[in-house]
Amino acid sequence: AQSVSQHNHHVILSEAASLELGCNYSYGGTVNLFWYVQYPGQHLQLLLKYFSGDPLVKGIKGFEAEFIKSKFSFNLRKPSVQWSDTAEYFCAVTPMNRDDKIIFGKGTRLHILP
Amino acid sequence: KAGVTQTPRYLIKTRGQQVTLSCSPISGHRSVSWYQQTPGQGLQFLFEYFSETQRNKGNFPGRFSGRQFSNSRSEMNVSTLELGDSALYLCASRRESGKLYNEQFFGPGTRLTVL
Q1: Which of A44, A57, B6, B7 has its CA 20 to 30 A from that of B108?
Q2: How far apart are alpha carbons B28 and B103 in whole angstroms?
Q3: Distances in whole angstroms, Cα of residue A54 to Cα of each of A58, A66, A102, B70, B101
Q4: Residue B1 has what pLDDT?
Q5: Residue A104 and residue B42: Cβ atoms within 8 Å?
Q6: What is the pLDDT of residues A45-102, one digit of tens each?
Q7: Residues A4, A9, A10, CA angle at the centre, nearest 5°?
Q8: Is the pLDDT of residue B89 over 70?
Q9: CB contact, 8 Å: B8 with chain A?
């Protein structure tokens, strides 16, 4: 079955540290990839997305992600985190087949220490 | 442009009761999806409606059902509530379903507590 794995369930970092959150998916065909963020008490919102083209995509608030097709990965990165990045992060995949279902990972809770 | 709205925002029910949640998508969006969010399980897909038809369905029991109206508004119903149904129920809309995927926009959710 198609699935998305986020290996880090909880991450604690100090401000200015670098961040990398892992995301792997299981689907052999063409995919669209997303990272969503949920700040405390707020809606889920799109951080960045990959449809095609340059595998390194840049999103809002200094986040970026790299799609590595051979590794079925779409890891999220930020060179220097801020306290305001404290949130839950979700990776999501849409296999581009007739089903077109959107599959989310279980999320990673990121806590930034001031 | 108004975002996705969900009503009510909070609900408290007891076991065995049923509940109906409502979602109004962004104007012009014809696809509505529902998700159950619980700590540790992330977002679990319930179903997606497009043009009043259920297009996709997740692995939830038949107690969970939904429908979509001609104005794209959607309702979700859970019958015979169980304690494990306590969760945040999220609705998301997108412009169209199909091969060309569009970004999903999420509502604030309905927090359901089953006692």
Answers
A1: A57
A2: 13
A3: 10, 9, 22, 39, 18
A4: 66
A5: yes
A6: 999 999 888 999 999 999 999 999 999 999 999 999 999 999 999 999 987 765 567 8
A7: 150
A8: yes
A9: no
